[in-house]
Structure formats: C-alpha cells, structure tokens
Amino acid sequence: MSEPLESLIPLKPNDYHILLALAEAPRHGYWIAKEIRRETDDTIRLEAGNLHRTLQKLVRQELVTPTEVPGEEADPRRNYYGITQLGRQALAADTARMRSLLESVDAAGVLSEKA
Fold this sequence. Notes:
By secondary structure, the protein is mainly alpha-helical. It has helices spanning 5-8, 13-22, 29-39, 48-60, 85-108, and strands at residues 27-28, 64-67, 80-83.
C-alpha cells in the first residue's frame, strides 16, 4: 500500500532527480545516474550502491516500478525502472511546492541586489 502523497512531500533531492529522470520513459540505473549528472552540471553524482538503494526505496513507496523495456533499446543485462502515477503526482506536487517557494522569495525581494 502506498503512502499518502502529502507524507512524501518534500521529496529528498536524490528522489526528486530520479523521478525527473524517469518522467519521459523507463530507464536503467546507469542511464539515470548519467542523466542526473548531466542535468545538475555534475553537482549530483549517485554512485551505484546509493542509486540502487534509493531506487528500491522508491519501489517500496510505489513511486517507481521495475519494468520491461521492449524493443531494440532493451539490454537484458540491465534492470529498468519506470515512474508510477503516484510518482508523477509526487514529482508534480514537489515541483509546484518549489515553484511557489521561489515565487514567494522573488515577491519578497529578499535576494534582490538591493538587499
């Protein structure tokens, strides 16, 4: 049974980046790690053990699921994961939370050059 969406937000940074990497299509762990490094300009590096522990946690939370990838892209040596509907909802909710926070900061002008 999955956790209520409210209890998952805010997502941990690694969880958020993994869900974001899976938002387009199911992928294998090595691709996920490379995509996160690319998207974060190499500031977040998930080593294999940490990545797979985090993926297993996300599977238990029903945010991602192991999946088969049909066709020529599939590599039978790799484990593929896809984002679930709950994972998409959590990603959207946390993105909206962060967007709202940034809008509040901008509106308050606390980070403007005048401050």
